[in-house]
């Protein structure tokens, strides 16, 4: 069992790139992340994949971790977001297959079915239309999985400002994409958390 003070020391070492500190954190927390992921996904393979994905992200962000923050809270927030993203991706494939089936029934000869890349391109265009500040906040939350408090701290703004900017960004993106009808609904379900 690792005490809180030891976790802080390990995070400080991890900030310096220590593989030994990473290994200790992995050995201590990976069984708990696995249990958490398994309780949500109900699938051992997906839970194991979640553990690997989460700890790869921890290693990638090792220089940004705060020794004074709650590593456990950060870890489980990241785990939850990873699981939700994976569920969203699975839903995407199901929705996309249903959409393909629906569109082929309406027009079997249609060459205008959207592929994954086209859907992502539309989403990226919607994000690009945001003001620079809204875009920065939106990307930090949606792409980098930072929480509102983490974004507020990183940018030196209030959590309320982050929340307002995220609400405005989501509204603008949804408005841009909603004009696409069924395709817009598909994009919204895939890309916005």
Description:
- This protein folds into 2 domains: 1-107, Rna Polymerase Sigma Factor, Chain: A, CATH 1.10.1740.10; 114-193, Arc Repressor Mutant, subunit A (Orthogonal Bundle).
- Helix content is 78%, strand content 0%.
- The protein is mainly alpha-helical and 193 residues long.
- Mean pLDDT is 79; it is low at 106-114.
- It contains 9 helices and no strands.
- It starts with a helix and ends with a helix.
- It has helices at residues 4-15, 19-41, 44-60, 71-106, 116-128, 132-142, 148-155, 159-178, 182-191.
In short:
This protein has helices spanning 4-15, 19-41, 44-60, 71-106, 116-128, 132-142, 148-155, 159-178, 182-191. The protein is mainly alpha-helical.
Q: What count of domains describes the coordinates?
A: 2
Q: Please tally the β strands and state the result.
A: 0
Order of helices and strands: HHHHHHHHH
User: How much beta, percentage-wise?
Assistant: under 5%
Shape: globular
CATH class of the largest domain: Mainly Alpha
Give the N-to-C terminal Cα separation. 34 Å
Report the mean per-residue pLDDT as an integer.
79
Outline the low-pLDDT stretches: 106-114
Tally of DSSP helical segments: 9
Give the helix level as a range of percent.
over 70%
